[in-house]
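From the pipeline queue, job 12 of 40. The input is one protein chain; the requested action is below.

Action: predict structure.
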Amino acid sequence: MLLARGASHRTATDAELVRWGADLALVEARIGGPGAARADTAIDVALVRTGAGVRKRIRVNGVGRRAAGLASALRTVLFAPEEMLLVSGPPSLRRSALDGIASQRSPAYAADLATYGRALAQRNSLLRAIREEQADRTELRYWDAPLLDAGGAIIEERLRTLDVLAAPLAQAHAEIAPDEAAAERFGLRYLTNAPAAAAESPRDALARRLAETADKEVWNGATLVGPHRDDVAFELGGRDLAGFASRGQQRTAILAFKLAELDLLTAHDGHPPLLLLDDVFSELDPQRRSHLVRRIAGLPQAFVTTTTPDDLDPALLAAATAWEVRPDEDGRGARLVGPLAPAGAT
C-alpha cells in the first residue's frame, strides 16, 4: 500500500514503518516486464528519519511525485480485516473505500482530495481563530473558494463512481448470494449533508449549506458540512444493512463490494489491478472463501498474507509461491525468507 498510496493502511504514522534502530526504509517495485500489456514502471518510496520525524520521498521512473500521483501508476484492491466493519463501522471507512476507487479511476480526483484537505485544515484553523476573536469572518472567503471548488468536484465524482459501480456490484452479489439477490436489490446510496435542490449543482448546494451553517461553524470552530462528513449506505431492498443485517449478510455485501471494485478497475483500462489480501481468509466462511479463490485464480498476480496457512484454500496454496516473514534474532525487525516449498511437497 505504501507503493500504491504513499501510506500504510495499518498506521497513519510513517515512523512506524521504519525498522527500529534504522534510519531508512526503502520499498521498490517494478510494474510490467516481458510480455506485459503496459510499459515498465519503477516506483520507489523512501522513508528517512530526521530530527523532526520521518521525511518521505516518492519517485516514479526516477521522477519525484506526490502521493496522489501513485494511484495511476499502481492500481490496487485491498481486502483487509478492518474492512469487515465497512457496512456497520464509522463513515470514514466507507468514504475511504469510495475515495480509493475514484482516485484510481481519475487522477484529478486524488488532486481534488488533496486540495480539499488543505483548504479544510486552513478553514478550520481560521474558524477557531474567529471564535477566539483573533480573526475576522471576512477572511473565510480566501478558503471558501478552493473548498467549494474541490468539494463540489469530489461529490460529483463520488456520485459518478457509485453509478458505474452499480452493475458490477449487483452482478457480484448475485454470484455470491443468488437467492438473496433474486429477492431484493443490493446497492449503495450516497448520503450527503448538502443535498442539491432542483437544478442545483453539488458546488452550489455546498455553498448554500455553508451559508446556512455559518454561525454554528464559528461556535464549533469547525467546518460542519462538506464531503468530509458525507457517508455511503449499503442497502438491501432499500434498507440500510447497518441496521438489520446479520454478520453473514454484512460479509456477503463487503465481499461483493470488493469483487465489484476489482471488476470496475479492470474494465477501466483492461488491466486487472493488483489484489492485496491481508489476512482476511480467517474472516470468511468456506463458501465466501471459494468465491474469492476463484477470482484470484483468474488474476495475473495477487498477494495474500496470513498468520494461519491452514486458513488458505489447498488449491491456492499449491499454486502459490510462498514466503515467510521471520523475526530477526535481536527482535528489532524481521526478514523475508523464501520462496518456500509448496504445501505438501517432499
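Job complete. The chain has a mean pLDDT of 87.
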